[in-house]
Design brief:
The structure holds two protein chains of two kinds. Chain A is mainly β. Chain A has no helices and eleven strands.
Chain lengths: 112, 113
């Protein structure tokens, strides 16, 4: 069966450290993968998109990697801050299904 | 603000009520979406409209009825809902159907009593 898996347990880290979140998928061949941030009671906000032929994408303190062999994307926040605390969602675009499919998200808590 | 506005932000309705959720975007996007988000579950795609035509209906019960009168507005009409329909309902838009980033509204927190 097809699945997108994100760690359901919250990730707690100390301010200033690098946060790494994982998105694994099975039985999809995504054309691209996206990461969103969602704060409580609000809609997701787009952060980064990485295509299947790209290994890595960066935006300020954010970095995303995409390994189509491992079927995994890693999302890194360097020099994390308490304001980075939120739930982070990965979403992949499945050409076969022609739609964007979301994972359940991982909650990140950055402690001062 | 993302450019996608949803109203109301909160809604409490009885199981026999009829209500509507509204979504508006002035980003010039061609595609609009309704998602349902329940606690600890992935976003569930409900409906997709591309150029005002419905292109996706993911086996959603008929008590949910979408309407897209023009490219800027999307409605979700609700009637005879069940308590398990309580969730955050999110509207999104994208430049084209499912191949670019999605812009989400703030959502409507719906409680069915």
């Amino acid at each position: 069966s097809q699945k997108i898996e994100q760690n359901s347990e919250a990730l707690n880290i100390q301010e200033g450290k690098t946060a790494t979140l994982t998105c694994n998928y099975t039985n999809y061949s995504p054309a691209y993968l996206q990461w969103y941030r969602q704060d409580p009671g609000r809609g997701p906000v787009f952060l980064l998109l990485i295509r299947e032929n790209e290994k890595e994408k960066r935006k300020e303190r954010l970095k995303v990697t995409f390994d189509t062999t491992l079927k995994q994307s890693l999302f890194h926040i360097t020099a994390s801050q308490p304001a980075d605390s939120a739930t982070y969602l990965c979403a992949l675009f499945s050409g076969g299904y022609n739609k964007l499919i979301f994972g359940a998200g991982t909650r990140l808590a950055v402690h001062p | 603000e993302t450019g996608v506005t949803q109203t109301p932000r909160h809604l409490v309705m009885g199981m026999t009520n009829k209500k509507s959720l509204k979504c508006e975007q002035h980003l010039g996007h061609n595609a609009m979406y309704w998602y349902k988000q329940s606690a600890k579950k992935p976003l569930e795609l409900m409906f997709v409209y591309s150029l005002e035509e419905r292109v996706e209906n993911n086996s959603v019960p008929s008590r949910f009825s979408p309407e897209c009168p023009n490219s800027s507005h999307l409605f979700l009409h609700l009637h005879t809902l069940q308590p398990e329909d309580s969730a955050l309902y999110l509207c999104a838009s994208s430049q084209d159907y499912a191949n670019t980033e999605a812009f989400f509204g703030q959502g409507t927190r719906l409680t069915v009593v």
